[in-house]
């Protein structure tokens, strides 16, 4: 029994720390009936919907399919690293930073192994992690914090993106510079290049019912658009209402 408890504590370190901090915080803010109001159920519902749609699309191999075709255009290690890093940077704006890493880091490991470029693996993964977190700050759906702050601020979608655009562009430049500094322009061997092309089998070729697969692609694309629009519409209306109430109060 004691061994099981030790294993549980070791495997669930973050959970235990969170639980302890939650208990300690209850002494500063005493539990009462208003606790339920602290939970932003709207943000959680929208985030859950977004994650479900993205998970379904990832399971179909849509993001991997796009990534492999981009990777196959690389002729040297620096180009390959730049593509792998930019995949995380761009996709994190739309499918959240966590999903971007879960999708593209395993692909990077597989591609670099097939290309016999394992010596760059740590550097590429670190750059991918940084890229996913920096790219996700541009849009409200890039990460949960943005979604919450977007709703709390009452800003419009365009205003939010324009506010974050200078920081995102600065981060993009710094990422590109970092790739050029840390990744050398090594030529990949011919067998390594063939390996990168064989990393992923085309999902459409593997699936016998191509028509059904294409229908799934369209359905998930539509669902993603609907969820994204609901995020924007919900918070836009919320912001408009707050602005209206504030203007009435000033009058």
Automatic annotation (TrEMBL):
Transmembrane domains' residue ranges: 44-68, 80-108, 160-183, 217-238
Domain of life the protein comes from: Bacteria
GO biological process, one term: transmembrane transport
Any Pfam family matching the protein: CitMHS
Membrane topology: Multi-pass membrane protein
Intracellular or extracellular location(s): Membrane
Keyword Transcription attributed: no
Gene Ontology cellular component list: membrane
Record-linked InterPro entries: Cit_transptr-like_dom, Diverse_Ion_Transporter
Keyword set includes Heme: no
Stretches assigned to the Citrate transporter-like domain: 17-224
Keyword field: Membrane, Transmembrane, Transmembrane helix, Transport
The name this protein goes by in its record: Citrate transporter-like domain-containing protein
Organism phylogeny: Bacteria, Bacillati, Bacillota, Clostridia, Eubacteriales
